[in-house]
Automatic annotation (TrEMBL):
Lineage: Bacteria, Bacillati, Actinomycetota, Actinomycetes, Streptosporangiales
Signal peptide span: none
Molecular function per GO: magnesium ion binding; phosphatase activity
Name of this chain's protein: DUF87 domain-containing protein
SUPFAM superfamilies linked to this entry: HAD-like, P-loop containing nucleoside triphosphate hydrolases
UniProt-listed CDD domains: SIMIBI
Limits of the AAA+ ATPase domain: 247-411
Pfam family, one: Hydrolase_3
Domain of life: Bacteria
């Protein structure tokens, strides 16, 4: 289920003439029994609302005074969400004969045409206040207080997310919270401007429209409603944007090492996290340990507990990296098999996380895994898997894929490997001159070539890959020694340090004096900072072999995490 919260305006949305029909009450009760949270968002003062609406307990929380007040019907507690306007304003309006005049805990309210006097009083008193209109009603509130801010406070109280919320309204003051919700709906009697701006136009008026929306939520029909403003930008083709749905997507990013998988993933994550979607990044290799805007659980000495992850995810604004660098490769599928049902459980309860990102998917969901406890990617919100080897990923996991992104110089080969793993025919590829990735949607006969829109900030480099992965042969370091009598290949920093400890002093000093170590680090690893530090050692007069070996190893260890033991049980090691 995409939406587990219904946020509803009161007057002329839920109610007609201040009264709510019994059929509408029954529709709300069905939603509540299904586990959907209900939030009432109204411009009315609380006492006024309670005098006409005898069922506030239907709602988990009530936002009153147009975002100024939060009421808990179960606890019967009330919290002001802002400071009230100065008493001088209400006194001034009373003195000028403004009537009706309502003074709540945060709001001062009247009706047109008294807005002229209200604006004059605000100006003459030198107050920083805003005036909000709604079908003739005039509400004075502190800056930034509206139905969207009130809804945000309610969702925070419930540990829920606006990206799991559908909101419904009818008037001018409903624009803000309909826009803040993942999907904004308008009843049939809504103002034309609101209906034109919303994501879903209901056929029913007022309470009938709310009951209609409730039925769509229960049946699952609402999940299929497209909300284009929420689609995630991927790239461009022929000058047109190419976007992905933020819900129900099963996305596979595949291609050879160094082909751009991380560039695609970083671009998508930057937009998702930036838009407030909660992401869980399951990171076997420690590549996301420095990713901005997320909390990292786990390090080389500690594997995060599944319950620890679940507890942190209760905060909907908090995206999480589950760093499994401390877990041996052979143990990762078992860990992920335990984590996955816990993630679906959190989502079933709270409506988030919204995206689960599985890096090195062939490690966590290898081909030998015959059962994946997911009916569809939507059970996790959306699923993104990243791999070098699509044919080494569980076929049960690959069946969840709705869209494949192939990167690298030969995307046709990657798409063919994915299709072959599922027993499907590979798609043709419709290339364009400036494309750099290929997109294949399930059910299409052809894949599209398009240009990726990159992230604005480059992600930190692949520290784990350089520490313990398999670098290409032309990127590896070779200890040859004077006269090139040796050819010892260091395929990563771990083997570099190991081999450095074992080579003879002449071989070590031969490369040190030539500056080979810093040049390799600079050119092949792209780490100019480490290269400069190593170069300083290389320039030293009469370097002592044991001391210089240890110092280079220490510099590498400070910047890169080296594993406790080699990860030889790894499909990436196909060139040993």
């Amino acid at each position: 289920m995409r939406h587990n919260v219904l946020a509803c305006d009161y007057d002329e949305t839920l109610a007609r003439g201040g009264r709510v029909a019994e059929t509408t009450i029954e529709a709300l009760e069905r939603l509540s029994r299904a586990g959907i949270k209900l939030v009432l968002v109204t411009g009315r003062e609380l006492d006024d609302l309670l005098s006409v609406f005898p069922h506030p307990g239907l709602f988990d929380l009530v936002v009153a005074e147009n975002g100024g007040l939060l009421y808990d019907p179960g606890q019967r507690t009330c919290d002001a969400l802002a400071m009230p306007p100065p008493a001088a304003l209400a006194d001034r309006l009373r003195h000028e004969g403004v009537s009706p005049l309502g003074v709540g805990q945060v709001v001062v309210a009247t009706r047109e045409p008294h807005d002229v006097r209200v604006l004059g009083a605000i100006r003459e008193l030198g107050l920083e206040l805003q005036v909000i209109y709604n079908k003739g009603a005039v509400m004075v509130l502190p800056p930034g207080v509206n139905k969207a801010s009130g809804l945000a406070a309610a969702l925070d109280r419930l540990s829920l997310s606006a990206h799991s919320t559908v909101a419904v309204g009818d008037g001018e003051n409903d624009h803000s919270f309909l826009t803040a919700a993942e999907c904004g709906a308008a009843v049939a009697n809504a103002l034309p401007a609101l209906r034109d701006a919303c994501d879903l136009r209901l056929a029913g008026e007022a309470g009938d429209g709310v009951a209609e929306l409730a039925g769509m939520m229960l049946s699952g029909d609402l999940d299929a409603v497209e909300v284009p403003r929420r689609h995630v930008l991927l790239g461009h083709r022929d000058g047109e944007e190419v976007r992905l749905r933020p819900y129900g997507s099963g996305l596979l990013v595949a291609g050879p090492s160094g082909s751009g998988k991380s560039t695609v993933t970083t671009a998508l994550l930057e937009r998702l996290v930036g838009d407030g979607y909660q992401c869980v990044i399951v990171d076997p290799e420690g590549d996301y340990a420095d990713y901005p805007g997320v909390t990292v659980l786990g390090d080389p000495d500690r594997v995060p507990g599944v319950e620890e992850v679940a507890h942190l995810l209760e905060q909907p604004r908090q995206s999480v990296v589950v760093n499994l660098i401390g877990l041996q490769l052979r143990d990762r599928p078992t860990y992920f098999a335990e984590l996955l049902p816990r993630l679906t459980g959190v989502r079933a309860k709270l409506g988030h996380p919204h995206w689960v990102v599985v890096d090195e998917a062939h490690h966590l969901l290898p081909a030998e895994v015959r059962r994946v406890p997911l009916g569809e990617a939507a059970d996790l919100g959306s699923l993104l898997m990243i791999t070098v080897h699509p044919d080494a990923v569980s076929a049960e996991a690959l069946r969840l894929v709705t869209t494949t992104i192939a990167v690298g110089r030969e995307p046709e080969s990657t798409l063919a490997a994915f299709a072959g793993a599922l027993g499907r025919e590979a798609p043709s590829l419709d290339r364009v001159a400036d494309g750099d990735i290929a997109l294949w949607r399930r059910g299409d006969e052809a894949a599209q070539h398009l240009t990726l829109t990159p992230a604005t900030v480059e992600r930190t480099r692949h520290r784990r890959k350089y520490a313990a992965g398999t670098m290409a042969k032309d990127k590896s370091f070779y200890f040859t020694g004077p006269g090139e009598r040796l050819r010892l290949r260091a395929r990563n920093l771990h083997t570099f340090v190991e081999l450095a400890e074992g080579v003879d002093d002449d071989t070590w000093l031969h490369h040190l004096r030539r500056g080979d170590y810093s040049q390799w680090i600079r050119d092949c690893l792209g780490d100019a900072g480490l290269a400069d530090e190593v170069a300083a050692l290389e320039r030293a007069d009469e370097p002592e072999p044991a001391e210089s070996r240890q110092r280079v190893a220490d510099l590498i260890g400070e910047r890169y995490t080296l594993p406790a033991e080699p990860t030889a049980f790894d499909p990436d090691h196909d060139d040993r």
